[in-house]
Amino acid sequence: MTRLAAAPSPSVRVRAPGKINLSLRVGPVADDGYHPLVTVFQAVALVEEVTATQVAEGAGISLTVDGPQSGRVPLDASNLAWRAAELLAREVGLAPDVALHLAKGVPVAGGMAGGSADAAATLVACDALWGAGLPRAELHRLAAILGSDVPFALLGHTAVGTGRGHLLTPAMSRGEFHWAFATRDEGLSTPAVYGRYDELAATGALVPSADPAQDTALMQALRAGDPTALGPALHNDLEAAALDLRPELERTLEIARNGGALGAMVSGSGPTVAALARSRQHALAIAATWTAEGAADAVWCTTGPAAGARLL
Ligand code: ATP
């Protein structure tokens, strides 16, 4: 007698990228309590992969995670992927029944928006699995509800973000840029970094201004695909605040600069440090020096730009 194997449950797999802020300019705090931003995002090839598998009706949402640092990721309803599945189900009037698996390739709590990438990938995956067929613009609207970095994880490549970073305009970028990242196990709270930024602004140590005109040289370097011009144009208004809270990051920056990085900065609200390298070999050499000098808990080498959330 031939035994028939049970048919596998339908599943879809979606990949979405982490990001770096090539420029992050922070305006004075507005009436709603938020700082208006002008930021230039670049998606990088450190990616999250979300698999959404059909489950029995009424089974609800379940979540599993693997990958480096996956022990630091919540497995309950606070996970952004879980929230994305819930939101999409509510929006299209379906029961949120799905098994989600996250294969994490973006450093956790490093300011590189790995959780946001999971949320973007989950929206695309559940939309396909449940046959919802929402237009991309609708997925972007839901993404912005989940978090200000989620829309960019949907879009990918290079884009200018305004508002809270969620209003996006795609930007032209030629060629490939090589990056090395130094991450730390102990995170840096984004609200604490903004708090210190406000304190520094109150003393006059810095002047909040979110003027896109300040990024002209950076946009030119991207259009030309010129890493030598991009390096000195990298900018992060939050760097001073992050360094104030974590002075040891100065050494990580210095090692990258001494190693010939074309540019080095704290990434977003930190504590990740990003270095722009001349080549893949050069990125590996900077990462190796960070490791040898004990200036990072983990190192990562990758390229940008990378595509936004897409079905595999
Ligand atoms: P942000 O700057 O948006 O706070 P981040 O980019 O620094 O985030 P993430 O890896 O996205 O870092 O996650 C930050 C925190 O969010 C984690 O410490 C974790 O507690 C929580 N979190 C919620 N959902 C996820 C997820 N899917 N993956 C990783 N962390 C998540």
Number of strands: 12
Helicity level: 25-40%
Percent strand equals 25-35%
What overall geometry do the principal axes of the alpha carbons give? Answer: globular
| Secondary-structure-derived class | alpha+beta
CATH architecture of the largest domain: 2-Layer Sandwich
Order of helices and strands: EEEHEHHHEEEHHHEHHEEHEE
State the end-to-end CA separation. Answer: 37 Å
Q: Which distinct ligands sit in these coordinates?
A: adenosine-5'-triphosphate
Question: What's the arrangement of secondary structure elements?
Answer:
Layout: E1 11-26, E2 37-53, E3 61-66, H1 80-92, E4 98-103, H2 114-129, H3 136-146, H4 150-155, E5 158-162, E6 167-170, E7 177-183, H5 190-202, H6 216-224, H7 227-233, E8 235-236, H8 239-245, H9 249-258, E9 263-266, E10 273-277, H10 280-292, E11 298-304, E12 310-311
Parallel strand pairs: 1-8, 3-4
Antiparallel strand pairs: 1-2, 1-12, 2-4, 2-5, 5-6, 7-10, 7-11, 9-10
Helix pairs in contact: 1-2, 2-3, 5-8, 6-7
The chain binds adenosine-5'-triphosphate.
Describe the protein in words:
By secondary structure, the protein is an alpha+beta fold. The protein folds into 2 domains: 11-170, Ribosomal Protein S5, domain 2; 177-304, GHMP kinase, C-terminal domain (Alpha-Beta Plaits), CATH 3.30.70. It contains 10 helices and 12 strands. Strands 1, 2, 3, 4, 5, 6, 8 and 12 form an 8-stranded mixed beta sheet that branches. A hairpin with a 4-residue loop joins strand 5 (158-162) and strand 6 (167-170). The protein starts with 10 loop residues before the first strand and ends with a strand. 48% of the residues are buried. The mean pLDDT is 95.
